[in-house]
């Protein structure tokens, strides 16, 4: 991909136009000097002005660049600390690392939910997850951008990101079948190729290639952990993890015991999925660049939530609000903007206001997030907003991050946990018993949030469509493949792959 293009053969007329404009801007005594000076004296001065103008104005006085389009990429289930640009030692993401080196990377982005539906719904509305599910008539990001004149195309990996869950809303074209990022990218390119030249667009691409079951194709399947004697089969990893979590009937029967080799195998396969996704995404960006669409697009790469690998005693996601599930990557490449790392905690709830600010689209008055553009430009050193809240799937399960501290309310254990993320990013040292006043103050934020949610219409299950609606059979099959539903007993031993 081309991070920077040098435009050659600029118009001579453009340079003279700029020089003339610059001379006109000089004080009158300088202009009179040009008028009365001999040709020998004027030419060197004019030459210096011409050179200065051409150096200072890379676009000359030519037409302004077209307003940018938007490419939004969701790499489902990707935890931030498994990418090289976030400090991971394994080479899982060479291409994303390179993109991050050309972009704005937010070091501490926080997801507002620990599972797919709620997190994406919150990002697409810039309101918190429970409220976003309750307010079914809320316009999503695609609705608003289509109203602003953008062509809108969404291509997701189905299941919880399909039409049955309302994620087609606002898209001119929406594709949810054909599993995997490679297929999604091909569908997206076909759609883009059909747009009129110069049409401004919003493209959303989503994939589950990193999500369980951890089954990347060869050679990425065995890219990490070569020589591991574990006999775990990749396509069975979702069911294995369900048994570890004790979910539904998958936990019945003999207790599942994994040794250290088996645990490493699960983690290695997850990393292999990241490396595979990194390769496919790079080819997609190259295809956009070949079409002349990459350089003038705002490109946002993020994840909706992370994944646990025994960080706090279990696996998968949706059950806790610890960092392994809520700390997610957020990378924004902006045409003409210098690369930088922003060491400030921000939320996925801030993505919509930031994108709209960059695109020149009106930010909704009731957005709970805030534009991060002042942070991106270096005009501020802190996020202009309140504490960052994340919601679990269980009623009353929240976390609040404020001033570097994180308070977690665990309704299952009827307790609070307090961590200093500046010193304890792994959340091992619970300070709740040592700082009761801080716990009480941050708990007030949770209480106000909880009371506001109680006043909303009852949204129902976060993994169900509107009351009375039924999930289609293909959606059910996809949910089973991803481990959200119990495997179909009639498909035992099937070679069906996600």
Quick summary:
The protein is of the alpha/beta class. It has helices spanning 12-24, 28-36, 39-56, 94-100, 116-125, 129-134, 141-147, 181-193, 237-245, 260-290, 323-326, 351-359, 373-376, 436-454, 473-481; strands at 69-75, 104-110, 151-155, 173-175, 201-207, 297-302, 308-309, 315-316, 327-328, 330-333, 340-347, 388-391, 398-402, 405-410, 415-420. The strands form three sheets. Strands 1, 2, 3, 4, 5, 6, 9, 10 and 11 form a nine-stranded mixed beta sheet that branches. Strands 12-13-14-15 form a four-stranded antiparallel beta sheet, covered by helices on one side. It has a two-stranded antiparallel ribbon with strand order 7-8.
C-alpha termini separation: 30 Å
Radius of gyration (CA) equals: 26 Å
Low-confidence stretches: 1-61, 460-468, 491-498
Provide the β-strand percentage band: 5-15%
User: What characterizes the major β-sheet?
Assistant: 9 strands, mixed
The helix/strand order is HHHEHEHHHEEHEHHEEEHEEEHHEEEEHH
Bulk shape:
globular
Given the structure, what is the number of helices? 15
Q: What is the average of the pLDDT values?
A: 85
For the secondary structure, the number of strands is 15
The helix content, as a percent range, equals 25-40%
SS-based structural class? alpha/beta
